[in-house]
Amino acid sequence: MPADGGVHPALRGRLAGVLDKYRFEADPLLLRRVAEAMVTLLPSDTQVLGGLELGGVPIATVLSSLTGLPLGLVRRQAKTYGTCQRIEGAEVAGRRVVLVEDVISTGGAARAAAEELRRREAQVDTVVCAIDRFDGEIHPLSEVGVQMLSVLTKRQLDAVR
After folding, report:
1. What is the largest CA-CA distance in the chain?
2. Dihedral of the alpha carbons of 138, 33, 40, 18, in degrees to the nearest 10
3. Torsion over CA: 133, 135, 139, 140 (sign)
């Protein structure tokens, strides 16, 4: 791996000390590279991808295209119009859903999504993300039985600053 950890310059973009994640999500070539790296992280028995609103949706869409897996779009809350659903797209009941997110810090959105999908009888035990910013020993998602798999970690990004 290159000395910079193979990190594309757009992933090193910072705004007021915060990772500018939209720089890689808005670049179609880089977005595809991120999704391609995620393909190898998916458990072999994945049946549905669950793209978390907003940042997980572009990645999950490309990942769905690359793998042929159906996509469920997971909203933070249901809209009060249209279908009024919190989970849109693929049927999730009785299926193994792997959550897809862009950047995870505390895991709060992924945790809420896993809980909602489980209420809908989906099996959820894995989330894949582009960047895991958690910097502790035990990931908070493990408290709810969800393993975290990432393309890059905060430590890797910090190493190339």
Report:
1. 50
2. 10
3. negative
Residue showing tokens 């940042």: 55
CB 93 within 8 A of CB 80: no
How many residues would you count in the chain?
161
This prediction has a pTM of 0.86
pLDDT tens per residue, range 82-112: 898 999 999 999 999 999 999 998 999 999 9
Note the helical H segments in the chain. 22-25, 28-39, 56-67, 108-119, 154-159
- In the structure encoding, which two tokens stand for residue 130, read together? 């582009």
- Cβ-Cβ contacts under 8 Å for 18 (sequence gap 6 or more): none
Tokens at 32, concatenated: 């595809």
User: 123-132 and 147-153: which strand pairing?
Assistant: parallel
pLDDT in tens, 24-59: 888 999 999 999 999 999 999 999 999 999 999 999
* Exposure string for 135-146, b = 16+ CB within 10 A, e = fewer: eeeebbbeeeeb
Question: Rounded CA gap, 60 and 73, in Å?
Answer: 9
Helix axes 56-67, 28-39, angle to 10 degrees: 60
Distance CA 81, CA 150 (A): 34
